[in-house]
Amino acid sequence: MARVEIENITKRYGHLEVVHGVSACIEDGEFVILVGPSGCGKSTLLRMIAGLEHISDGTISIDGEVVNDVAPKDRNIAMVFQNYALYPHMTVAQNMAFSLKLSGLGKDETRDKVGNAARILGLEKLLDRYPGQLSGGQRQRVAMGRAIVRDPEVFLFDEPLSNLDAKLRVQMRAEIKSLHQRLKTTTIYVTHDQVEAMTMADRIVVMRDGLIEQVGSPLDLYDEPANLFVAGFIGSPT
Ligand code: ADP
Ligand code: MG
């Protein structure tokens, strides 16, 4: 587990500034949802936390240690994307084992970790299948399995359910929450879906145009939205 602190994070692409000095603190074991309209900077922020994107200004710390210059693979962070491309020529087990390649684990340890992740996600019977032989929900579970095998301290999800149909989305929300309740891994989950935010989050961070508008529990935001934008976004009556 880990506490993630972002301080005055700014991101510029050339002359274009897309994140304007935002700060937030995600506590150990917390499930925080980052919401906001398309293009407001959610993915950019997540990618900076993961180390996949250079930070123009500001610092990101994990458990008090600044990680700005720490390589992605050394951050103990696992990220699940919207387009969770699995390797089509690898089995489920191989897909999951692949994310341990860089860790230098032996064969037995790798097998144990993959087996354990498969148990957690109910994938035991599918380990020898290829992605093409799986349903959308099963593929999403394998994508989560690839993240879990690395025992990350922090989980980042970037709109992981947006390619799934409505029914499956509801089911996967429950699965992700129950996974979080079991593993208690600090989680930052990006979505533009208000229902997802209101039903899954311990706290919600509302972004707009590269700025954080408000941070609070779903109830806080519903009862006391900071402004009309938040009220409109959360769907509160104010
Ligand atoms: P969100 O995930 O909230 O939809 P993004 O973080 O993907 O938003 O994008 C925020 C802004 O940064 C957008 O205006 C987008 O066009 C811009 N942007 C994202 N990536 C790049 C890039 N590699 N080069 C230039 N602009 C980018
Ligand atoms: Mg995005």
UniProtKB/TrEMBL annotation:
All copies of domain ABC transporter, residue ranges: 4-234
GO molecular function: ABC-type transporter activity; ATP binding; ATP hydrolysis activity
Membrane topology: Peripheral membrane protein
Any one of the GO CC terms: ATP-binding cassette (ABC) transporter complex, substrate-binding subunit-containing
Keywords: ATP-binding, Nucleotide-binding, Transport
Record-stated family: Belongs to the ABC transporter superfamily.
Entry protein name: ABC transporter related
Taxon lineage: Bacteria, Pseudomonadati, Pseudomonadota, Alphaproteobacteria, Hyphomicrobiales
